[in-house]
Amino acid sequence: MKITKKINNWLETHAASPAYGGWVLVGISICYLGAGINTMAGWLYVISGVSFALLGVSAFVAVRSLAGIVVKRHPIEPVTAGDELKIEIEVHNQKKQPVSLLQVRDILPFILGEPVQENIEAIQPQASYRWVYYHPTQKRGVYRWHRVELATGAPWGLFWCRRPQKSEGRAIVYPTVLPLTTCPLIDEIGQDDSQRGDPRGKPLQMATTGLVRSLRPYRIGDPTRLIHWRTSARYGELRVRELEVITGGQEMIIAIDSSYKWEEELFEQAVITAATLYFYAQKQKLQVKLWTSATGIIKGDISVLETLAATNPWENNKLPPDHCPLIWLTQNSYSTSSLPLGSRWVLWENATTPAETVINQDYPGIIIYNKQELQPQLHKSLTSF
């Protein structure tokens, strides 16, 4: 059976392969030819000859129908995991004759889904057929595929001809960004320093928030991390720090320990967490960047999302930067022992090694438990030991 399939596939892609109706007609033609030889009846020879002529014309026309057909793929817009990709393919007929009964198959990567096909009744000479379809996505990633197949059984469906055409496809599926109302991991950065400041508003160098110029009443939209709680309690209303430079030249880096051998499900959670924290930090007007072991430091929304879409565990083993605070995302509890000053960590529970016994006691962080939902855990208060 495997040999038969291989032969049939070779015939389809290099010449033309008889369809079911073609094999039936081949059998009938041979029978009429045998009967004609046996009986020497001329009409049997005529029927046999006409049948073989139909088979020959069908095979020739099927092969010729696919000549002069050009496929062009339009760029695919990135989407977030769970949304649908919009895939657009243009089939152009360069010949002076119309093409009919055409089938187009987009050969997607197996991890993205099964091949998708479209049946085209006819394309007029020097005209194009625009095929647009939507394909669901479930998992983030950068997907590439290289082939579209054209097939036809014209004119009578007796022979089937198939020709692959090179058509590069690249689809980027971004990780999900969870909506957060609060996140102590980000909100409490620099809070310890602010509690040591002068409540009358004298200049103070903050770890990540710059120089305090004065204190003013809270306005809607102000980041909660800028609230000066001691002064707010004294005046009975919220007061926020007004800064000369929001970040004071400092930066915060969200770093994924992508060189470690993660469990697949936990790594996907880490990527979602990185995307969520990145955009939440931007919302809080922090200067934030991303770091992975393969790419190093990345900045810019599109670049960060593309990096997170493409990252995988077991990447190149590189050390994270040590010149600024990190939010370190890891499953390896031992890696929290050498973080830069002012860092935070997010540690995924390891079933084989109790996380609480080996984590960094100098900096607070969050322990993520796999059996619980991710979003509520990012709202948790920081854990210190």
General description of the model:
The protein has 385 residues and is of the alpha/beta class. The protein folds into three domains: 1-174, Immunoglobulins (Immunoglobulin-like, Sandwich); 211-244, no CATH class; 248-379, Rossmann fold (3-Layer(aba) Sandwich), CATH 3.40.50. It has nine helices and 17 strands. It has helices spanning 2-14, 20-39, 42-65, 184-187, 191-194, 229-235, 264-283, 301-310, 374-377; strands at 17-18, 69-73, 79-80, 84-93, 99-106, 116-123, 128-136, 141-152, 159-174, 212-217, 239-243, 252-256, 288-292, 296-298, 326-330, 344-348, 365-368. Strands 1, 3, 5, 6, 8 and 9 form a six-stranded mixed β-sheet that branches. The longest helix is centred in the first third of the chain and has 24 residues, at 42-65. The protein is elongated, with a radius of gyration of 33 Å. 30% of the residues are buried. Mean pLDDT is 85; it is low at 192-213 and 244-249.
Write the layout of secondary structure elements.
Layout: H1 2-14, E1 17-18, H2 20-39, H3 42-65, E2 69-73, E3 79-80, E4 84-93, E5 99-106, E6 116-123, E7 128-136, E8 141-152, E9 159-174, H4 184-187, H5 191-194, E10 212-217, H6 229-235, E11 239-243, E12 252-256, H7 264-283, E13 288-292, E14 296-298, H8 301-310, E15 326-330, E16 344-348, E17 365-368, H9 374-377
Parallel strand pairs: 3-9, 12-13, 12-15, 15-16, 16-17
Antiparallel strand pairs: 1-9, 2-4, 4-7, 5-6, 5-8, 8-9, 10-11, 13-14
